[in-house]
Amino acid sequence: MPDFGKVAVLCGGKSPEREVSLLSGAGVLDALRRQGIDAHAFDPAQRALDEVKAFERVFIALHGRHGEDGTLQGALELMGIPYTGSGVMASAVGMDKWRTKLLWRSIGLPVPDFAMLDAHSDFAAVEARLGLPLFVKPACAGSSIGVSKVNEPGRLREAYEAAAKLDALVLAERGVVAGEYTVAILGDEVLPIIRIEPATDFYDYEAKYLRDDTRYLCPCGLPEAREIELRTQALEAFRILGCRGWGRVDFLMDEHGGAYFLEVNTSPGMTAHSLVPMAARAVGMSYEQLAVRILSLAALG
Predict the structure, then answer these.
(1) Is 143 a catalytic residue?
(2) Residues 6 or more apart whose Cβ sits within 8 Å of residue 16
């Protein structure tokens, strides 16, 4: 086992995803300690961030703003403390679903058709262009917080107003509802694809973290050649944003088998329901081994 020194597991924070982050952090902390690593919980909502200077390496188990969006990464860069996950730029861009889609589309990766919304949008025209169902999302939030599915004409404004309470940037996205999948990436390795089948209307916060009837299929059921193709595209999507270390790329499939890349997660969950540990298990990697591997990828720059 490498000597990682004193390790801070950053979790909690002030974002709406605080509770999920605390669960991720508790899991990581326990896993690292079981491997003999000198790991300590560090909640930036309760301690001054400069106290992290007492640590030699940081495992980021924060989700959402001020943990996953490049701000924390910038602070750690200035302090010279290696940290897990992507760097400043990739974290900032990856947190922004709109700019992520623009970059992916610019290199020819398929993304669901979308429109940016504000209070003056022609909501009826957006509904007509994108069709129903469609999804409305805060552009810079995670864990499906603030996401609404619009199934009926005339409901788009209401969904926009709910999302706008969380973010000034709100997007409407054409519903691609024949299958939801995720691809975990660990270093240069692309893990097996997982198909997600929620019992709820879509894969919302409840389905992700609170329910036990969401189905996760790994193997995902796609033909081998198609899975290899999509894993390759997911790695391309990850790298074009400048991501490194570990992360997750989500995509959707339509009824004709077409894939549409949805978003990247640069600080994925590490809870009992989380997808990266699930994909790691599929290749024989325990949760503890996964946590140590992620920590070993901590870097600066």
Answers:
(1) yes
(2) 64, 141, 143, 145, 166
